Amino acid sequence: MYTKSRLLMLGTAALLGCAVLMAGPVKADDVTIKVRSMVSVQAQIKFYSQDRSHVWPSVSTAWNLDDYATHAYSLACISGEKICFGAWSVARDGYTGSLSWGVGHGDTRSCRSCCFICGEGPYQTQELIY
Questions:
Q1: Residue 45, Cβ neighbours under 10 Å: how many?
Q2: Which residue from 30, 63, 112, 129 has the highest number of Cβ atoms inside 10 Å of its Cβ?
Q3: Measured over all CA atoms, what is the biggest interatomic distance in the chain, rounded to whole angstroms?
Q4: 63-68: which pairs have CB atoms within 8 A and are 24 or more residues apart?
């Protein structure tokens, strides 16, 4: 019987080869990040791993931020993994708008305080302000 950590290690090993097997067991974690948009435009958000090729919720989707409520996002990650958020405004035609926060759309920008380490909470609520 495989544990969650062992299955995660095996899945990562398939992508990276035997280097992960030599590194020892990988510890899986679940973190919850809270985000509140304080802008008057609709925005979208994703979370980007800085240590592997992974994005939440997925490569082809993003979460909508279309109100002033605090939204909680649960991410299954690897302990010690650096994760940064990227958010952007959405234009009326559905395309990426001119405003962005964190690492932006596609993880293309740098940021000062938009990253966190998986498993090293507590995590502050992130606010998008303009």
A1: 24
A2: 63
A3: 50
A4: 64/90, 65/35, 65/37, 65/128, 66/37, 66/42, 67/37, 68/36, 68/37, 68/38
Q: How many domains does the chain have?
A: 1
Residue 13 lies in a domain: no
Give me the mean pLDDT over the 76-95 stretch. Answer: 89
Classified as helix, coil or strand, 34 is: strand
CATH of residue 35: 2.60.40
Residue 80 located in a structural domain? yes
Mean pLDDT taken over the chain = 79
> Contact 26/8 with Cβ under 8 angstroms?
yes
Is 49 among the domain residues? Answer: yes
**Looking at the predicted structure, is the pLDDT value of residue 37 above 70?**
yes
pLDDT at 25: 55
Encoded tokens for 127: 């606010």
In a domain, 89, yes or no: yes
